[in-house]
Design brief:
The complex is a heterodimer of chains A (249) and B (272). Chain A is an alpha+beta fold and 249 residues long. Chain A is 40% helix and 22% strand. Chain A has a five-stranded antiparallel beta sheet. In chain A, strands 3-4-5-6-7 form a five-stranded antiparallel beta sheet. Chain B has a single domain, classed as Aminohydrolase, N-terminal nucleophile (Ntn) domain (Glutamine Phosphoribosylpyrophosphate, subunit 1, domain 1). In chain B, the strands form three sheets. A five-stranded antiparallel beta sheet of chain B has the order 10-1-2-11-12. Chain B has a five-stranded antiparallel beta sheet with strand order 5-6-7-8-9, with helices on one face. In chain B, strand 8 and strand 9 form a beta hairpin. Chain B is globular and about 105 Å long. The chains are: A alpha+beta (249), B alpha+beta (272). Chain A: Its main location: cytoplasm.
């Protein structure tokens, strides 16, 4: 087995590309990221590891915009992310220039996934060690979309998804609790999913909301704290409601 | 010279520094240049060779119901009329047409190539390409061949989500959005009739008749235009050929020959 995992361009006898799978491991070690699609808003949330006191936290934005109507969050190697994001931004503008139209979410996802795939089939390179969550609104139909790509270069559309650390627990939570939401409810759902795996509090979570009219908006700590408090209150109320009927029996 | 087929790939400018790590992935397209002592002179000769060939009249205009596109059908080589039956309106796809002026081969090839690119765009993006986008693709290709002797003066007319679209694209790399265009050696004559009779709110028949008259008058005065005046209409359900009339017949339709009034009738003189 060890012989088949050095070069990216070598299949193992049982059909694995080990380098790609190791890249997926790198993603699993990255910080948690979640994306939830609502009817009129799409939310991206990322776990923020404790910032050192002297670090300027504004320089470590984990949710970035690719164009006015497209945003991206990722889990994995952040340095690789920078390269991918720069290429995607150039492609967004290039598309505007050659066909006089903004990109659709599907197009730019396909481009990023294609780029990730190219690096799994060339000599002398390694795959990008990150999975991305891409959100945006279709420029003409206004339909919201959430896509995910991974180091192998596959992509698909999701109603809600999570990637990075503990993504399985987050995805389970989302599968149990997902329903069509809009506006603030979508934000709450995303935060609740993140809180399953992340310490509670505004300074450990970064949230951005995209709407058709106003584009991408990063929520500040105070807002997140307020919503977290709401969620905890709702949880406590639900717990109390559960205990109440059992008292009667 | 080897043909530069990079025009058949999509334009994605990858900045060189990022690609230092992966030289295989972004080889810039290259082609051979001709080995002549005077390359500038060669370019000038190439252009001169095709220059007289923009002998034609084509026109297109946008009006309330959509776009009307009309053209003659004469091909001339200097003073020799090589054909009276050239198809100068090229169907790119069911909702977009292009006109041909300049080098026939250049126009035909690049319009077909544009049709390919439009179809690939549709398949990849699950939606039709806009007229603006299609004309931009063509203009970018022609710009990349600028100075190499291509001779194309075309109008791309079509219908997309934003309504009627009309763009003029030429081999100098120019691209103009507009509502009225005429291209070719007969265009000044066509403009005279077109500009005079144009109104935005015409019916399809009125607009077609205006286009027909404009082409006819251009063929009347311009030696390099003639043959058949074809008129196409592009609307929400795509393009439709409305008519193709021989300009000779159109002449007698517009200016019928009046029978000469006889001054005196020669009466039979009975032998006195």
């Amino acid at each position: 087995m060890a012989r088949y995992d050095r070069a990216i361009t070598v299949f193992s006898p049982d059909g694995h590309l080990f380098q790609v799978e190791y890249a997926l491991e790198a993603v699993r070690k990255g910080n948690a990221a979640v994306g939830v699609r609502g009817t009129d808003a799409i939310v991206l949330g990322v776990e923020k590891k404790a910032t050192p006191k002297l670090q300027d936290s504004r320089s470590v934005r984990k949710i970035v915009s690719l164009d006015n109507h497209i945003a991206l969050a990722c889990a994995g190697l952040k340095a690789d992310a920078r390269v991918l994001i720069n290429r995607a931004r150039i492609e967004c503008q290039s598309h505007r220039l050659t066909v006089e139209d903004p990109v659709t979410v599907e197009y730019i996802t396909r481009y990023i996934a294609g780029l990730q795939q190219k690096f799994t089939q060339s000599g002398g390179v390694r795959p990008f060690g990150l999975s991305t969550l891409i959100i945006g609104f279709d420029p003409y139909t206004g339909v919201p979309a959430l896509y995910q790509t991974d180091p192998s270069g596959t992509f698909s559309a999701w109603k809600a998804n999570a990637t990075g650390r503990n993504s399985n627990s987050m995805r389970e939570f989302l599968e149990k609790n997902y329903k069509e939401t809009s506006g603030q409810e979508t934000v709450k759902l995303a935060i609740r999913a993140l809180l399953e795996v992340v310490e509670s509090g505004g300074k450990n979570i970064e949230i951005a909301v995209m709407t058709r009219e106003t584009g991408l908006r990063q929520l500040d700590e105070a807002e997140i704290d307020a919503i977290v408090a709401e969620i905890e209150a709702e949880k406590a109320a639900a717990e109390a409601a559960k205990k109440a009927p059992s008292k009667e029996t | 010279m080897k043909l530069d087929t990079s025009g058949l790939q999509s334009f994605v400018p990858l900045s060189a520094p990022i690609d230092d790590l992966c030289p295989d992935l972004s080889a810039p397209p290259t082609f051979d240049l001709p080995r002549s002592a005077d390359f500038d002179g060669f370019q000038k000769d190439a252009i001169q060779m095709v220059k007289p060939a923009k002998g034609t009249t084509t026109l297109a205009f946008i009006f309330k119901e959509g776009v009307i596109v009309a053209a003659d059908s004469r091909a001339s080589m200097g003073g020799y009329i090589s054909s009276q039956t050239v198809k100068k309106i090229i169907e790119i796809n069911p909702y977009m047409i292009g006109t041909m002026a300049g080098g026939a081969a250049d126009c035909q090839f690049w319009h077909r190539n544009l049709g390919i690119k439009c179809r690939l765009h549709e398949l990849a993006n699950k939606r039709r390409i806009s007229v603006a986008g299609a004309s931009k693709l063509l203009a970018n290709i022609l710009y990349s061949y600028r100075g190499m002797g291509l001779s194309v003066g075309t109008m791309i007319a079509g219908w997309d989500e934003t309504g009627a679209g009309l763009y003029y694209v030429d081999s100098e790399g120019g691209r103009l959005k507009g509502t009225r265009f005429s291209v070719g050696s007969g265009s000044p004559y066509a403009y005279g009739v077109l500009d005079n009779g144009y109104r935005y709110d015409m019916s399809i028949e009125e607009a077609a008749e205006l286009a027909r008259r404009a082409i006819y008058h251009a063929t009347f005065r311009d030696a390099a235009s003639g043959g058949v005046a074809s008129v196409y209409y592009v609307g929400p359900s795509g393009w439709k050929k409305l008519s193709g009339d021989d300009v000779g017949e159109l002449h007698f339709r517009y200016y019928p020959v009046a029978p000469n009034p006889t001054e005196q009738e020669m009466a039979e003189v009975s032998p006195a």
